[in-house]
Amino acid sequence: MSFILDFFNKFLGQAPLLLGTVVFLGYLLLGRKWYDAAAGFIKTYVGFRILQVGTGGLVATFRPIIVAVYDRFGVSAFVIDPYYGQTSAMQVLDSVNSLQYVGYVMIIAFIVNIALVAFKKYTKLRALFLTGHIMYQQSAVLLWALYWVITGATGAEVGWFLVIVTGLLMGVYWSVASNLVVEATQDVTGGAGFSVGHQQMFGAWIAYKLGAKIGNREKDVNDLNLPGWLSVLNDNIVANVVIMTAFVGTLMVVIGPDNFNYDTNRYYWGTFIFETTSLFAVYITIILTGVRMFVAELTNSFQGISDKLLPNTVPAVDCAVTFGFSPNAPAYGFIFGFLGQMIGITTLILIQSPILIIAGFIALFFDNGTLAVFANKSGGRRAAAIIPFFSGIIQVLGSALVLTVLRDAGPNVIGWMGMFDWATVWTGVTLLTSVLGIVVPIILIPLFLIIPQLQYKRHKQNYFTTMIDDSVAVDPSALK
What we know:
The chain is mainly α. The protein has 18 helices and six strands. The strands form two sheets. Strands 5-1-6 form a three-stranded parallel beta sheet. Helix 9 runs antiparallel to helix 14 (361-406), helix 11 crosses helix 12 and helix 13 runs parallel beside helix 14 (361-406). The model is unreliable at 468-480 (pLDDT under 50).
């Protein structure tokens, strides 16, 4: 068991290795030579690492700015950021000698996901969740939340029954939520052959559905076609730099130069602002490069796995992969999500809430950016602005609500996940469990499984053939 846990943490928990292996296996099953399969592994690994460099650069550049806004005005609060939530979970579980159970939850959940997909004829589930670091993160946070509201106050270790229930529920969530957004992701990506496996799968589906009702998909954020001198903003890179300099640059001016640790011998204050905000476009370009490298390999090779091992299975991957299909949408999501979060935080202050929230960059950008991508595809610019705005409010208020019960775990609690699904679905589950007990997650398992059955009834004709059209293999040059 120690070896298995090590393997899950050090291999399956590393998304580039996991996805590279999936590609390698897929090409072998397609009858490719071993060296072609190895080349696919390398391209996938390197492509995903490039993607991680881009996403990591965004976080490293902009998280300090968001935190500095609050430090400037002396606000002390909980941070809504997945890594703050994960840290809280690991610290609390470690304090009761139960951190090792997170690995067991992850193993159980992954086995459940595989089993549900293997028996898709009955379960109607097609998506295999492959975002390794998210798998561990969510397993840790859900185990912490359920443990604390059920038995945490006693200081006892986590029990095996809770570990099994948590693993079953987590596996069902991965399976059902990533399956729910399959058709929407196909539309967003132009048939790229994957789904989203991340923190806002229910949110992405809602954004896609609501977008069609509140906007016009013909008015795409990537096709502004502005007149006169504004036409320079039709270029994605220029638009990203201008928008982020105007928006984030204003925040930096408000914070003031004394709150930033920068080399005054190298930068003027103004050039430091520009160089910082322009990194947004730099890292977006890096993300697009990584996406182009590994999406084509994953899409083409997964056909082998789909045909030979798990027929008609859809890989569910990191939400950032969708950014390559709508480069301007993430900026919309960030800006309007930020405005929404500010309104949510102001509301907490006005009502003198015992919980104050610090905005986290990952929720602001990756969560709301993903919702903007899906909203834009079905509802254009208006939807890409309105939906992240309300998402920002929900992220703050939902997280504050769940922290009213989880903060009692002590000083180890420094934040909550903050992503859309965790500020809605999992906030509700945690609060209901605090009142009704473990019966809530137990009942939720079969209730979740009803969702794919309802999906199947709406798409019987092509439900299991959505991803197997050879014509949808991704051409990297076709990515916007």
